[in-house]
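thread from #wetlab-drylab

HS: before we spend reagent money on co-crystallization trials with nicotinamide-adenine-dinucleotide, can we at least see a predicted complex? here's what I'd submit
DV: go for it
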Amino acid sequence: MWADLSGKRVLVTAGGDGIGLEITRAFAAAGANVMVCDIQPESLERLAKELPAIHSCIADVSRENDVAAMFALLDQKLGGLDVLVNNAGIAGPTGGVETLSLADWERTLAVNLTGQFLCIRQAVPRLRNGSGPSIINLASAAGHLGMPGRAPYSASKWAVVGLTKTLAIELGRDGIRVNAILPGAVDGPRIRAVIAAKAKASGKSVDEMTQTYTKQAALGRMVTARDIANMALFAASDLAANVTGQELAVDGLTQALS
Ligand SMILES: NC(=O)c1ccc[n+]([C@@H]2O[C@H](COP(=O)([O-])OP(=O)(O)OC[C@H]3O[C@@H](n4cnc5c(N)ncnc54)[C@H](O)[C@@H]3O)[C@@H](O)[C@H]2O)c1
């Protein structure tokens, strides 16, 4: 096995679906003891059928009390923490900046940025006692490029990169590595909804907008959730023992976002 995570205690936020689910599957297959949270009970029920050994709980990462309760459960179920995967994130609204509501702006930042902060704050004292400890924050290609029509999302993901780089320095002396994964467009229901919303907003067809997305990457295609899970496995493993503070792009070299 190229990335051996045997015995690692791992928390994946929003592990019930999408990229988080694929990361959960990959970590479990690599021997990790995984706990996930999500806000969708049905996703966690499906996960329990597929992978009965996984621990799970309902928690909204933007709520301080939910996060505190999740970590109390984690202490019981995993007995400590070696890897935090801060995966939860929402797309936020699509539209010109003057059309956006304050509520949508604040919700996007609450989940995508404050959610990571709340989990990191709880995780750090536990990671200090962990083995090969690390934090993996899901950012986005929109965290190093501008993305017109998606100001709250892009702003939140740039902030995730700033948080990552700062904490890599702050926590380096404790041996805790902190990296960000920056996915490009990941094929799946979420990106199709984003593309449909952008097509509607710009008067283009969904096919045209899909082509615009794929042409933005040098490799001319979307990435898969498994590609992101592979990078997470690497970043959490001893193979990345000296990798910290990095923007790990998995985007087929995306050069612009529209
Ligand atoms: N899908 C993409 O193309 C893409 C591209 C770049 C970055 N990302 C980032 O990757 C991460 C995962 O994206 P995804 O596409 O798998 O997401 P998704 O929309 O498919 O959602 C995955 C899960 O997140 C859960 N969730 C939503 N809000 C939550 C909250 N407040 N607390 C806990 N769980 C919550 C949902 O219930 C769902 O099960 C996000 O941070 C996202 O911004 C995704």
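DV: The first strand starts at residue 9 and ends at 13.
HS: ok that's useful, forwarding to the group
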